[in-house]
Structures are given as C-alpha cells and as structure tokens.
Fold this protein.
Amino acid sequence: MFVSHRAILHLDMDAFFASVEQARRPELRGLPVIVGGERGGRGVVSACSYEARAFGIHSAMPIFQAERLCPRGVFLPVDMKAYAAVHRDLVELLGHYTDLVEVASIDEAYLDVTGSRRLFGPPRAIALRVQEQVYDAHGITCSVGIGTTKLLAKLAAGLNKPAGIGELTDADVHGRLRGLPVGEVCGIGPVTQERLAALGLTTVGMLQDVPFPLLAAAFGRGAHGLRQLALGRSLSPVRSERPLPKSVGREVTFADDINDVELLRATLLSLTDNAVAELRRKGLAARTVALKVRFNTFHTVGRRRTLARPVSATRPLYETAVALLDELGIGARWVRLVGVSVSGFTHNAFQLTLDEGWREVALGEAVDRVREKYGFKALKLAGGAVAERHLERPSPDLALAPSLQGPPAGSRGA
DNA sequence: TCTGGGGTCCTGTGGCTC
DNA sequence: TCTGGAGCCACAGGACCC
C-alpha cells in the first residue's frame, strides 16, 4: 500500500473574486454577486457568491445565461489588481508557517507543513489558525484540505467547501474516496468523465478496481495516470520555487465577429505588443510565436512558428504572427477571437543586441520605461491605435480592450 | 442573445538526421 | 547507395485547470 508521511495543506479561497468584492463593499454581503463580463456582453462568469450559486449560476457560465437565471444579481467586472493584492498578502501570511508554499493559482496554494508541526501543532490546528488569520485580515473565508499528497489535500478541501477543514488519509483512499464520482477528482474533466462512463466507470472505486488491461485498451498511455488519480497519488512534491513561465499570450474576443483582415492585423499588433511588453518585464526572449483564431462557427485553429533565434522586440514577433495569419487565409470567414502567444523562452541577456539590432531593443526598453511610469496606454504602436479605434469599452489592463466593435453596419454578409 | 482569458500538459503526426 | 528504425524536434489540436 502507498504510504506517505507528509502533511500537506491545500488552501482554497471560497468564491474568491466575489468574496473580495463583498468584503470591500459590505452592502453586497448576502446578495448574489457575479464577477465576470459585463451585462449583455459575450463574457462568462469568472466567480460568483454562494448566494448566486443558489440560482444555479456557476463559473464559466455565459453572462447572458446568468442574467436570465438571476436578473436582480449584482454583476461586477473583474478587478484583477484588487484580487492580486489580497493574493500577495495571503501568500506572505502562509510563509509564516512553512517555507514550502506552492502557489497553484490566484486563489489556491499548497503548504507542506511536515516540518512545522513542532512549532505550530498538528495540521488541523495550523489549518484553523490560517482560516482565522485570513478572515481577520481580509474578511473572507477559505477551505483547507489536509492530506498526505497534494491530490488528497485538494480533494479534502473541495469536499469541505465553504469555510471547512477536511482531511483525507491513505486509508480513506480505499474507504470514503471510493464512493465519489470520478468527476470530483482534479484532472478528470467532462470529456474523460464521459469516456469513463461509456465503460461503466462512474465512481473512484470503480476506477480503482477496473482491470488495468481494460483501462489501457481505452486510454492507452493515459491509463496509468488515471489509476494514479483514483488512488489519490500525486507524484509532485510541494515546490516553493516558481518556475519560468512556459508561454505568455494575449487574446481577445470581438464584440461582433469580423472579417476585416486589416483590422485583424492591427489587433494582432496590439496583442503582440502587450504580450512582448510582459516578456520584457520578465527579462525573457522568445523563439516561438503562436497564432490562434476562432471562427464564428467556434472552430478554432492554431499555427505556430519557431524563429532561428530568441527575440524580445515586438516587430519580428508581430511580423511572424502576421505571416501565420496570411498563410491561414481567413478569406471571407468571420472571426470571433484572435490571439497570439510566445514561448520557447531564454533569458534575454546580451545576445539580443546582436540579433535584433540595438535600436530595436533600445526602443522597446524606452517604451517599457514610459509605460511603467505612465501606464501601458501612454504609448501605443501605430497599428495598435488603429485597432483601438474600434474599441467599445477600453480595458484598464490591456492596450486592447477585451471587446472590439465589429464591421460597420451593413458590411456583414448574408 | 451562445459558450472568456490566462495558462500547462499530453498526444499524434510528420520531417529530419544518424 | 539504398532502406528502415530510432530518436528528436516542431507542430497542431485537445483536455484540463482557475
């Protein structure tokens, strides 16, 4: 039997974005708060309070559906700066208990408290103290899961939401866990769930017991991973160091579908400029450019190209993105979303001045300095400004707003 | 009234080199 | 010189997460 003696906590904030909004505006407490896209827009729900969930609203639900379910709900835009500030505070707070804090997302973290027990007591006592401190500092609640692996800790937190503390031991793997639906396990999404159901496997216990050859016949190499999930095993330990990002991207969904190639190019410039600014902030250069296009049919295609050398200037990356767009041949098709991302990172030390030309690099860095002082929108590249003239609601965080207006009235095809 | 944006990871395929 | 297999890499797409 798999036995681990580690003590891992998983901290999961309850309805994080909505809770932060309710904490800073007490008049919203007790009300159905929905954070996400604007009313009437094409966005989806990013987070919603438990009062909103009572109406059947959940994350990733299109806003128009949420409006229909709860017309009197409080719909708020995402204020990522505010949530990030709370997040930073929470991470600092967790660091008092152990050096081994792994930030999993803006509202989740793992703590390995194996070595903290002598100082702070058993894991449950630590969990309780963390909950109290989080509430005292920010007026929001969190759920804490305790387990011997990250997977068990996460499951335990999920089973005890909101504001609960739960524990899953190795013994529970062959006990309580068996009755859970497979979809409760992190890593088994709707598609896998459906494929498992086709085999008659709906609970974790069934997934534990199914003869391996049967699983392997259906899932190939993925079978082993599925079995590990069913047994609550996650191989990765809690890692406090934050690895280099693998990619940085920006994408935008148009308020109305477009088929204007010039506007698409201008939009690409703005997106690339934004992504590359982020790249330079991190001190990185990228070799690979990826283009993403979603048509009005919701069919999505991607194209990518790897350059001979890593670069950190907007121009070569933008030109590559445009070349990919041209090769794709949009033709008369209507485009719903366009995005660009860069990957294949190296630290952008000195080779850039050799490869890109010092003028290009110096220009990029000068632009970054101005933006750092006066905000991203203080400077825009010419094409990006063209795209922005089509903006409906400029976003505070992007040079390009998340919604662009479509073609002029009457220009749309039959 | 259709269905976001930011990511990571995995798989299958095809080209290239040895 | 030709051929096939192994290994690597780039690419495209999809599943999944918050």
